[in-house]
Design a protein that fits this description.
This protein has about 200 residues and is mainly α. The chain has helices spanning about 5-25, 30-40, 45-50, 55-60, 65-75, 80-85, 90-110, 110-140, 150-170, 175-185. It folds into two domains: about 5-60, Homeodomain-like (Arc Repressor Mutant, subunit A, Orthogonal Bundle); about 65-185, Tetracycline Repressor, domain 2. The N and C termini lie far apart (about 55 Å). GO terms for molecular function: DNA-binding transcription factor activity; transcription cis-regulatory region binding.
């Protein structure tokens, strides 16, 4: 009986090879030959699933959120702070995810499909943080004057900048977390914390 091939799993494996190369050498290092070698398959096999390098990169861009989602899920029922901390490059896997995301961010400036993926993902994340902030405001954990959508946008901008600072080494992970805590303490009531 012939072996069943899970085509989506194969595409995911190729995308994982793209991400590994991008984490190490940026997207400049991603070619069909390099991806085939990294994935341990033939170039023809890569071409079977992706007609071009652009198609392969666009698909790989749709797989970027996996690591962040795993870190958030591992926090159990995360609070705002847990979610924000999960976005920081605090260990090797998170650092690789951030390097890959930054490589794709540069590509997104010229590729509307990848840019659209970034906008959609950011919007979903902003909405999730805003909903968590609204719930915390409603249960008295945050001051009543908090504007959840504006605060979510501000917090995500803060974390984005802190992530780059950690990657570049001019902030430590501990310093970045302390700055998140400082910002959250400014909107917290004395009754609770946003953890």
């Amino acid at each position: 009986m012939p072996k069943r091939v899970d085509h989506e799993e194969r595409r995911w494996q190729i995308a994982a090879a793209v991400r590994r190369i991008a984490a190490d050498r940026g997207l400049e290092g991603v070619s069909l030959n390099e991806v085939a070698a990294e994935a341990g398959i033939s170039k023809g096999f890569v071409q079977h699933y992706f007609a071009s390098r652009d198609d392969m990169l666009r698909y790989a861009a749709t797989t970027l959120r996996g690591g962040v989602e795993e870190r958030i899920a591992s926090a159990g029922e995360p609070g705002v702070r847990d979610l924000l901390v999960a976005l920081l490059p605090l260990d090797d896997a998170a650092r690789d995810d951030a390097l890959v995301a930054n490589a794709f961010l540069v590509r997104a400036l010229k590729d509307p499909a990848i840019a659209g993926h970034f906008r959609t993902g950011h919007g979903q994340l902003r909405d999730a943080v805003a909903a968590m902030l609204a719930a915390a405001r409603d249960d008295g954990t945050l001051v009543s004057t908090v504007d959840p959508p504006a605060e979510a946008a501000s917090l995500l901008a803060l974390v984005s900048g802190l992530g780059d600072a950690v990657l570049l080494g001019y902030q430590s992970g501990e310093e970045a977390i302390a700055l998140i805590d400082l910002h959250l303490s400014r909107i917290a009531t004395t009754q609770g914390k946003t953890r």
